[in-house]
Amino acid sequence: MEFWYSEKHTENVYLSIKVDKQLYSSTSRFQRIDVFESLEFGRFLALDGFMMLTEKDEFIYHEMITHVPMAVNPNIKTVLVIGAGDGGVLRELTKYPSIDRIDVAEIDEEVVRVCKQFLPKTACGFEDRRVNMYYQDGMKFIRRHTGEYDLIIVDSTDPFGPGEGLFTKEFYGNCYNALKEDGIMVNQHESPFYEEDAAAMKRAHKRIYDSFPISKVFQAFIPTYPSGHWLFGFASKKYHPVHDANEKRWELFGIKTRYYNSNLHKGAFYLPNYVEEMLKNVE
Amino acid sequence: MTLTDQNRAPLYEALEELKTMHIVPFDVPGHKRGKGNKDLADFLGAKCLAVDINSMKYLDNICHPTGVIKEAEELTAQAFGAKHAYFMVNGTTSAVQSMVLYVVKRGDKIILPRNVHRSVINAFVLCGAVPVYINPQINSDLGISLGMAYNDVVNAIEQNPDAKAVFVNNPTYYGICSNLRKITELAHKHNMLVLVDEAHGTHLYFGEDLPVSAMAAGADMASVSMHKSGGSLTQSSLLLSGDNINSDYLRQVVNLTQTTSGSYLLMSSLDISRRRLFLHGKEIFKRVSELAQYARDEINEIGDYYAYSRELVNGDTVFDFDVTKLSINTSGVGLAGIEVFDLLRDEYDIQIEFGDLENILAYISVGDSDKNIEQLIGSLSEIRRRYKKARTSSLKHEYINPVVEMSPQDAFYAKKISMDIRKTAGEICGEFVMAYPPGIPILAPGERITEQIIDYIIYAKEKGSLITGPEDMHIQRLNILQGGR
Lengths: 283, 485
Prior knowledge:
The complex is a heterodimer. Chain A is globular. A 7-stranded mixed sheet of chain A has the order 8-7-6-9-10-12-11, with helices on both faces. The longest helix of chain A is centred in the C-terminal third of the chain and has 17 residues. Chain A is an alpha/beta fold. In chain A, helix 5 packs across helix 6. Chain A is 31% helix and 31% strand. Chain A contains 9 helices and 12 strands. Chain B has 3 domains: 276 residues, Aspartate Aminotransferase, domain 2 (3-Layer(aba) Sandwich), CATH 3.40.640.10; 106 residues, Aspartate Aminotransferase, domain 1; 74 residues, Molybdopterin biosynthesis moea protein, domain 2. In chain B, the strands form 6 sheets. In chain B, strands 1-10-9-8-6-2-3 form a 7-stranded mixed sheet, with helices on both faces. Chain B has a 4-stranded antiparallel sheet with strand order 11-13-15-14. A 3-stranded antiparallel sheet of chain B has the order 18-17-19, covered by helices on one side. In chain B, strand 17 and strand 18 form a beta hairpin. Chain B starts with 9 loop residues before the first helix and ends with a strand. The interface between A and B is medium-sized, with 15 and 16 residues.
């Protein structure tokens, strides 16, 4: 018997992972949720058939989306996380004793429950006393907050499905409004490589660029995401992600990381020419 | 016919069966099930073109239905509580025209609110009838026209006992309903028929806790835009009639202006949508009402916007409010409705239905998802944050009683000349002048122009009201009747 999970990365490209067994499958009010066990990547979570994380490579994504802004402003106290039902971002954030409050707006409670049960290595930050869970649409949550957060992390699914609203101009504008004077927004920014992903990436960048005075993009290598080349957005009202990065202060936290380090922080903002060009074209 | 027959869709079923029969087409349309026009088939889909067929033996004929169209119309009549239903393929405009053409001939009168759709007055041009207008009253704070006050209808009937019918909007574009039941009783007592424009009212027949529908109120005819809240294809519509109407004569009237090549795409969409509404209408419109209410609550919480609802009800000019409508007053944000309308489209990729000087209307349907609604609300809150201005003094709305000097038909066909608008006092107008807001004609063909009217047009224009109708887009000149003074 051979049991393969295949995800369409484009009409003509598949990524297939040999599955040992399926651990869970259900359909929540918002999406289909599946958890598989594989030999190569350990356990992995798929939403609506799209790979969200694997035990083997999720550290890359979660370290990059969290430590980059924390190194730029080590004084961050209040954080809003939108999405992040798998808990990976919380695991990283709760490593900072300096953070006072972490609000999480996740639309689908079922995802959190499933991740706690089947992906405990990732979903381990929920119990921290600083974490406040709000099970509601991030778009709705954000509208009610003004000048309140130092950092907003938008850990969304792709812009097709429940995460669609988290790629809109009004959402980025609402985030701007919910941030303090020196606030930072970091978001999952899709990939520049395949055409459809690149189109979503450019749309997102244009909208963020229109909403924030500083809007930069950084990259990471994530093997199970389409093309492996993945981008994040860094938008801020005040801080430049490289010039204002505070290496020494960050290193004082003494956080052990497997992917992120201070050199890589700078390097992540140096993008390939074709990506730079795509970004320029929409600025 | 029993209610269980509502599970059926005879016209749709006949088309499905026809597909299996492999009939060789030597009739029109010439695209021959799409095979003769690949570009079109690629664009619209082969399934769609396969049923773009002309009337034939199995498919009945819209001009003289005896088979599946008749069955489908009967099921529709049953579903809407009407005596008879007519599938209309030339839009609700043609349904409205048919109502008017049925009731009046040259020189006859119909009592109607001034805020009727243009198609009604155009029908007067066709048949030569004379309008008797009722002031629909205006809510000056919101800048919208309302329903007819009952006493105004009483007075109009007393002054025009020879009128043939009373015409009612149920509801208006903004969701406002008049007291249709009482107006119908009154009209019938005076031997007048009641004609209802239900272009925005399909859902009233199927949802719960909504304003009364025309047929339930005992009205005699209603024009129902199935393609709006009913979910059928654009341009498909229904004409409904009650007990006082001679259905065979009405069919003849419909055939005066309706095409003889009725589109089976449009007709099957009516058939399928009727079945869906009958079987699932309650849940569908419950969901729509909930979405609209959620959006209203959230939008009102943003501040400065006012998404209004049943609190406007006053027992008369706002007898009831259609809660599926999401109408929002924008004057608190200091922006014209049309500005918000443009910002939503240009900045936030959201297309709404309508924007006037003080209001916008977002059309909510069962096709909307929670996240679409959140996008709309989020965008409105962003527009407020980014573009809010000091509130400007709003337009003072004034209702000017029209002086109808001749029938719209006589005015339409009369010899006309163009004149500087400032010099037209005392002349008879040859064209429409509409102002949004409040969406009421200031002048219609055949009406006497007064100083007061000219002043109002110039004032409304200066205030940024959208003036439409005249040939001269800048509204500096008007077409008037030669020798009308």
